Amino acid sequence: MSDWNCGISTGCFYKTDILRVLPMVRDGGFNFIEVCSFPAHLDYRNPEHVKKAAELMERLGIEANSFHAPFADRIDISSPDEAQRYTSVRELIAACDAAAILHAGFVVLHPGPERAGKPPLHEWYERMRHAADSLNEVAVHCRHLGLVLLLENMLPHLMFGHVSDVMFLLGAIRETNVGTCLDTGHAFLSKDLRTVVHKLSGHLRMIHVNDNLGDKDSHLSPGDGAIDWISLIRQLREWNFHGPFILELADSGESPEQIMARARKARCYLRDILDGRFNIA
Question: In the chain, at which end, N or C, are there fewer CB atoms within 10 A of the end residue's CB?
Fold first, then answer.
């Protein structure tokens, strides 16, 4: 697929121990992954579990492109409560330590809380300042570990749910080892997808690839929803994007073989567009 490597997030198996998942991913045709941090999948706070995963990946010839940091209601780096911010940052730093053990290059992070709605303006600015300070602390830790921190655009109903919020945070972060990860499904739901590549261009390092019908974050395979992939890939080419694509597919209750078959089909669909089987001139 040109020089855009295409991998898969292990999040489609988030309920299953990663030690069981990795052979299925390799046998399904993928050796380039993003590791999901859901505790039932990978106990990132347990270095021994993480080391076992890293050793198995090495034996299987699987490379960790990225590690997705945990996100939950209790993890809020923007909270006005200092104790909650402290524990949230510690949680993210533990995830960064796990990413380093896995030899990942990127840590992908939701920069805002998993909370709906935009607060009053004074609180929004206060939360943005707290988030920027917290992200600076995490980014410093990432730099010491040789990692790049990527901020992901979030769902539009969430507090920092638009690309403009990500841009605000990027301007407030002092560290330079910080970029962005574009989630195509999130951007489509927030109606940012038409201009998002232009806005993020100088910061964009990787893509979370998933589709939807414009109604919910359903994590469909590309081509099964309403996203105009030809237009999006045209934008990426115009802005000389050269980063990886990571498929983020839903856990739909299928067998592992069916999930991996969907992933291979999605990868072929993207390759067909890039190889000129669809007209993107």
Answer: C
CB 214 within 8 A of CB 190: no
Q: Are 111 and 169 in contact (CB under 8 A)?
A: yes
Structure tokens at 180: 């962005």
> Of how many residues is the chain composed?
281
Structural tokens at position 41: 């999948």
The pLDDT > 90 percentage for the chain reads 86
Q: What is the CATH number of domain 6-274?
A: 3.20.20.150
Q: Kindly give, in sequence order, each residue whose CB lies less than 8 Å from that of residue 120, ignoring residues fewer than 6 positions away.
A: none
> What is the predicted pLDDT for the residue at 258?
94
The set of residues, in sequence order, having a beta carbon less than 8 Å from that of 36 and lying 6+ positions away, is 9, 10, 11, 13, 14, 18, 42, 68
**What is the rounded average pLDDT for all residues in the chain?**
94
> Amino acid identity, residue 144?
H
In the chain, where the domains are located: 6-274
At a CB cut-off of 8 Å and minimum separation 6, what does 30 contact? 7, 8, 62, 260, 263
Structure token digits, residue 123? 């609180």
Which residue shows structure tokens 């929803």?
A: 225
In angstroms, rounded to a whole number, what is the distance separating the alpha carbons of residues 224 and 269? Answer: 10
Verdict on whether the full-model pTM lies above 0.85: yes
Q: Are strands 6-9 and 245-247 parallel, antiparallel or unpaired?
A: parallel
Q: Considering the chain, what percentage of its residues have pLDDT values greater than 70?
A: 97
User: Is it the case that residue 1 has pLDDT exceeding 50?
Assistant: no
pLDDT digits (tens, 9 = 90+) for 83-107: 999 999 999 999 999 999 999 999 9
